[in-house]
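[Structure tokenization] protein backbone as discrete codes

[Encoding] learned vocabulary of local backbone shapes

[Begin record] amino acids and matching fold tokens:

___
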Amino acid sequence: RFKTMSEQTFEELLEQMENGEVDVGITKNIIRDADFLFNFEYQLVKTNKAIVVASAEIDFGDKTTLTLKDLDGKNIILRTKHEKRFLAKCAKCESYPIVKCVTRSNALKFELVRNKVGVGFFVDSIENIREIYGNNLKFYKIDGINMNSNTYVVYPKSKKNCLVLKKFLEIVYRDMTKL
């Protein structure tokens, strides 16, 4: 039995594991307080990096990696939670992209990128986005910005030696590396 963070808060997930309702959780957020570290194990299973996605008509030449300076003057579409950090990083290197849209929806970001409203800033894997949204877009790594998104598996320490858990972790590691 497992649940993902989209179904509840981190605290609710921990409570459900303590009560035996859930054996393992997959989460993007962990709170490393003393109680958590005493009762639970966690393992990093995937790290996604900052990337830029553009329509085929946007020209960055033959580059596969961009810098923030490359985004200077470009219309940018990004998630609400990334806006402040992204703009702070841009200001540090004197890059001035134009924030065209801030949204909570990745689907909306992709529609705006496809319709050439701007380039999208994501913290995800290129392979994952390409699989979901198709190959008619250009994907770029980006230097000069350290914004990662981690995915963890969390489970009670009492389950650490459980054979089913070990098999589950093998499957998670195998499948997460494909994304």
About this structure: The CA atoms of residues 26 and 153 lie 5 Å apart. The beta strands are 2-4, 24-27, 40-55, 65-66, 75-79, 98-103, 119-124, 137-142, 149-156. The first strand starts at residue 2 and ends at 4. The helical segments are 10-18, 34-39, 83-92, 106-114, 126-133, 163-176.
